[in-house]
């Protein structure tokens, strides 16, 4: 069984190419051609693999698609992110939020609080502006241009003295976020709160949410932000992979 799965994994890893020949599979796995054919036959019978008649190359079959769709149908964003959200809360010591886009706003769909820290005012189901929250900017950085226009058209009013209210400055900030992989709300939405967030992508590599860590500025210092950024980005990436993203 394990060797048969190795055959399937090799073909999967070359799914974007023309497939793999019998010789290539055998050489890569260190097996004889006859052994590869024997291991592949049940995978061909169940449709997990297919083999084209012209070249004899192995590719993923329709059964692999059905299996993937069944997997994706069995998970949702909250379920996929739950473990990472709790891990982040324990490691970062702040409040973790999971949000989804609803331009020009974001919606909080889950929240994991550190019981020893000051509680954040956010509530599951509540909304906040995209342009001045870390989760909002994390998603906006990868959303289409028309969403950016929708956010700007809705207005960029001042929330705190540090809120970005100029569309040009906001666009520059979104470029920085794409470059480093995470966003920062440095007292832009609440005067004494810093937040670090990263985007979550689905199996189509489309941004569907964001994961964040928030805390008072006395705990989430500027130096701490630089530590949290890569950690939050890594957690969001693991959630994305669970959802089938290939980024």
From TrEMBL:
InterPro entries xref list: GAF-like_dom_sf, HTH_MetabolicPath_Reg, Tscrpt_reg_IclR_C, Tscrpt_reg_IclR_N, WH-like_DNA-bd_sf, WH_DNA-bd_sf
Keyword annotations: DNA-binding, Transcription, Transcription regulation
Molecular function terms from GO: DNA binding; DNA-binding transcription factor activity
Protein name, UniProt field: IclR family transcriptional regulator
Keyword Secreted: no
Domain IclR-ED: 63-245
HTH iclR-type domain boundaries: 1-62
GO biological process entries: negative regulation of DNA-templated transcription
PROSITE patterns according to UniProt: HTH_ICLR (PS51077), ICLR_ED (PS51078)
Superkingdom of the source species: Bacteria
């Amino acid at each position: 069984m394990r060797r048969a799965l190795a055959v399937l994994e090799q073909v999967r890893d070359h799914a974007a190419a023309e497939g793999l020949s019998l010789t290539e599979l055998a050489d890569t796995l260190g097996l004889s051609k006859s052994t590869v054919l024997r291991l592949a036959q049940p995978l061909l019978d169940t449709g997990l693999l297919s083999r084209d008649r012209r070249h004899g190359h192995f590719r993923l079959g329709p059964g692999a698609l059905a299996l993937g769709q069944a997997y994706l149908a069995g998970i949702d964003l909250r379920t996929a992110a739950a473990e990472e959200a709790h891990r982040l809360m324990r490691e970062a010591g702040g409040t973790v939020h999971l949000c989804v886009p609803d331009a020009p706003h974001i919606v909080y769909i889950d929240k994991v609080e550190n019981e020893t820290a000051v509680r954040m005012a956010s509530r599951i189901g509540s909304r906040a502006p995209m342009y001045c929250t870390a989760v909002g900017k994390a998603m906006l950085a990868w959303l289409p241009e028309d969403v950016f226009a929708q956010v700007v058209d809705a207005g960029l009013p001042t929330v705190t003295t540090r809120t970005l209210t100029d569309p040009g400055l906001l666009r520059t900030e979104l470029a920085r976020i794409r470059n480093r992989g995470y966003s920062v709300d440095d007292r832009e939405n609440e005067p004494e709160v810093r937040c670090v967030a990263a985007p979550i992508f689905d199996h189509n590599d489309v941004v569907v949410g964001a994961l964040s860590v928030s805390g008072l500025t006395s705990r989430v210092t500027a130096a701490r932000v630089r530590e949290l950024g890569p950690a939050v980005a890594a957690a969001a990436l693991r959630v994305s992979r669970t959802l089938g993203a290939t980024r």
